[in-house]
Amino acid sequence: MNNYGEQYCDEDQFDDVEPDSKVPRVSIGRWHVIVTVDPDTFGAGILTVHDFRARDGNGHCARVFTRVFHLQPRGDMRGVVDGAQLLRSIRAAWAQCTCTLPIVVGDTDTIDVYVENGHARGSFLAGRNVGIALGVVDAWVETWPRCDQTAAVRARNAHVALLSPNQWVSGLFGSPAATKDERVTYCGAHAPEEVRAALVSCRSRRQREAIADSWCMLLYAMHRVHDEARARAFPARADALPLVSTHEDDRCSPWRTPFSTLTIPELKELLKRQRMRVGGARDELRVRV
User: Fold this and answer.
1) 85 membership: H or E segment, kind and range
2) In this structure, what DSSP letter does residue 210 have?
3) Cα dist from 138 to 2, 34, 98, 232, whole Å
4) pTM exceeds 0.90 for this model
5) Are residues 80 and 145 both part of a single domain?
6) Which is nearest to 144 in space by CA: 289, 267, 233, 34?
7) Domain interval for residue 182
8) Is residue 34 part of a domain?
9) For residue 10, what pLDDT band results from cuts at 50, 70 and 90?
10) 250 lies in some domain
């Protein structure tokens, strides 16, 4: 991921933006945008925004915008994602966002985009759809964040990456992982209202699964940031930025546990710092940490 956890756990990285409010410099500006795309033929994507300066009743950074969009197949090529339609959907979601929120030209925002790298059984068609989706989001992010920046700042603030299904499924749900039906059921009960409404409106099972997976990828990305922060500060607890989305998932999820997104080498490194045994399976290592 983007190693934002290093920024979250360093006290020298804080800025006073408002009285009694501390915001990591990693945010730079006010808004953090995350986009996830499940590039299946009948896939889906989600665009969500957190406001670093707004707090809910529990003191968590508020989720201020969520929009679900659907992918469609090209009419002339069976099974291939329509890249032009995907670009229109992302642009429409962002246009709605800028109309809803006081985002103005000149704001410096942070955006993370994740496309699932779903090459099912080595399928050439799946790989092609991943490439189309990645090209679309990369082209869209090329215009981000609408202000002049150095290359280093831009590389940090505008981030596009592929996300392996094994990575986010095992990181979010552990072993044994939740089934597709369980993920849809969980999202239907606990995801934001916009996601739940989109699930209800779907006519097909594949579309519901794509929406649920897109939201789960988004949760994984946010949890990963917090786990990175905890790992950087280990054995102390990192003062990671509290996002309302991760707080809700931590409270409701029967699967999510601290450090669940860390890999085996990362868990072993934490144990080595404490001169503890590093043998065993991933779940054993996590419990020991």
Assistant:
1) helix 83-100
2) H
3) 16, 14, 20, 30
4) no
5) yes
6) 34
7) 13-225
8) yes
9) very low
10) no
